[in-house]
Amino acid sequence: MNSIVNTLLLAVKELRSIRSDKVMMFLIFYVFTVATYVVADAISTEVVNLSTVVVDEDHSALSQRLTQTIRGPLFKAPDEVSAKVAENGLTYGAYVLSVTIPPNFERDLRSGKRATLSIEADATAIALAGNGATFMQQLIADEVTKYFARGSGQASLVNVVFHNQFNPNLTSKWFSSVMQLMNSVTIITLILSGASMIRERERGTIEHVLVMPVRPHEIVFSKILANGVVILVSSIFSLIFVVNMLIGVPINGSLLLFTAGTALYVVSVASLGLMLASFTHSMGQFGLLAIPTIIVMILLSGGMTPLESMPGWLQGLMTAISPAMHFVRFTQSVLYRGSGLDLVAGEMLAMALMASAALGIVLARFRKVLAG
Questions:
Q1: 217-228 as b/e, with b when 16 or more CB fall inside 10 Å?
Q2: Integer-rounded Cα radius of gyration of the chain
Q3: DSSP-assigned letter for residue 244
Q4: How much is the pLDDT for 161?
Q5: Cα distance between residue 185 and residue 289, in whole Å
Q6: Residues 29, 33, 38, 40, CA torsion sign
Q7: What is the per-residue pLDDT across 70-113, written as a single tens digit (0 to 9) for each?
Q8: In sequence order, which ranges of the chain are alpha helices (DSSP H)?
Q9: Can you tell me the distance from the alpha carbon of 36 to that of 278, in angstroms, rounded to the nearest whole number?
C-alpha cells in the first residue's frame, strides 16, 4: 500500500513538472491537433486533377472521343500538343501523364490489326504516376470497347462488381490521419518519458528523490504512469475530436478496446524511452539515440508501407522487437475493421510482453545507475 501511495505521489510530481514545461505542453497540443489535421489534409495519393497531355497523330473520330473522355475529377482537361512539346513537358515536370495516339489507330483496330497506344508517366511522382497511369489505361480501354460495341447489342457474359471494404471511396485521409496519430503517440511518448529522466539529472532533482524513502520501481512506475496518462488522454482526445469529428474518419470498433491497446503500447514505448535515457547523461545524447529509434519504429511499423513488402527476415525481426508493428495491426483492426478482443488479443499480448521486457531492463538499469 505504501508503494502504491509513493508511486501516485511521484506521478503527481511528474504531472506538475510536465505542466510547468510550457514548450512540452505546446508540443503535445500541436502534435495531437494541428499536426494531425495538417498531415492528414496534405498527404494524399489520390488521383485528382492530374496534369495530362495528348499527342493525337491519328485525328480520327475515335482519337477525338478518347481526348474528350479525359476529364475531371481524375484528370485535368488535356492539352493537345506535338510529340516534342509533350516530351519537354514530362522532362520539366509540366505534365505527369502523356498519351500518344499513333497514326491510323482507329483504322488498324477496325481492320483487326493490333494497335498500340502509348502512355508515358513522370515516375518521379511515383504514387500519382502509378495510380494515374492505371486509371488512364482503364479509362481508355473502356472507352474503346464502348466505341466499337455501339449498336452491336453485345453484352458481357460476366459482370464483375468491385467493392472496397472499410474505405469505399479510397479516401486517403482516412488512412493518413490515423497513421499520423499513431506516429504522434510513438514520438511524444518516447521523448516525454526519456526527457523526464534527463530533466531530473540536469536540474539535480534526482538527488532529492534518492534521499526520499522510495524504491527504484516506484520512481520508474511513476514516470510511466504520469507520462502515459498525458499521452493516452491526448491521443483519445485527438481521435475523437480531430480524426473523427473534424476530418470525418468513422470509428468502426470499440473505443474502450482501442484505449486498452493504446495504454499497453504507451507503457512499452515509455519504458523504451526510459531505457534509452538510462544510457545517456544529457538531453543531446538522448536525442541522438531517440531520433534513429523513432525513425526505425515508424518506417518499419507497416503504417507507411505494407509489412509484406519488406524482406522476410526483417518482418520477423520487427515482429519480435518492435511494439509499433503490433500497434499498427491492432489499430487498423479495431478502428477500421471493427475487430473485437478475440481478433486482436495476440497483438495486445505481444505489446504486453514487450512492455514487460522493456520494464525489466529499465528497472535493472535504474538500480545499476542508483548503485553507481
A1: bbbbbbbbbbbb
A2: 28
A3: I
A4: 67
A5: 18
A6: positive
A7: 887 888 888 888 888 888 888 888 888 889 998 988 888 888 88
A8: 2-20, 22-30, 36-42, 61-69, 83-91, 105-110, 126-148, 172-203, 206-210, 216-237, 255-278, 283-299, 312-321, 323-331, 341-371
A9: 30
Supply the DSSP string of 98-125, one letter for each residue: EEEE-TTHHHHHHTT-----EEEE-TTS
Q: Is the pLDDT reported for residue 153 higher than 60? A: no
Give the CA count within 13 Å in the CB-facing half-sphere of 42. Answer: 7
Number of residues that this document lists for the chain? 372
pTM of this prediction exceeds 0.90: no
Alpha carbons within 13 A on the beta-carbon side of 351 = 25
Q: Which three cell numbers stand for residue 213?
A: 524513502
Round to whole Å and give the CA distance between 320 and 314. Answer: 10
Q: What is the distance between the alpha carbons of residues 262 and 323, in angstroms, rounded to a whole number?
A: 11
Nearest Cα to 295, choosing from 190, 195, 224?
190
pLDDT higher than 60, residue 250: yes
**pLDDT at position 205 over 80:** no
One-letter amino acid at 65 equals R
- Bridge-based pairing of strands 52-56 and 97-101 is parallel
- Reference 178, options 344, 25, 329, 342; nearest CA is 329
Task: Tell me whether residue 191 is exposed, middle or buried, using C-beta atoms within 10 angstroms of its C-beta: 0 to 12, 13 to 18, 19 or more.
Answer: buried
- The answer to whether the beta carbons of residues 365 and 275 sit under 8 Å apart is yes
The one-letter amino acid at 368: K
The 3-state DSSP class for residue 257 equals helix
Tell me the residue type at 366.
F
Handedness of CA 285, 289, 295, 298 (dihedral sign): negative
Distance CA 204, CA 211 (A): 12
Q: Residue written as cell 486509371?
A: 135
DSSP letter for 75, please: B
Cell 478496446, residue?
257
Report the relative pairing of strands 97-101 and 118-121 from DSSP bridges: antiparallel
Q: How far apart are CA 197 and CA 32, in angstroms?
A: 23
Q: How far is Cα 239 from Cα 40, in angstroms, rounded to an integer? A: 12
Domains of the chain: 2-43+170-371 (no CATH), 52-148 (3.40.1710.10)
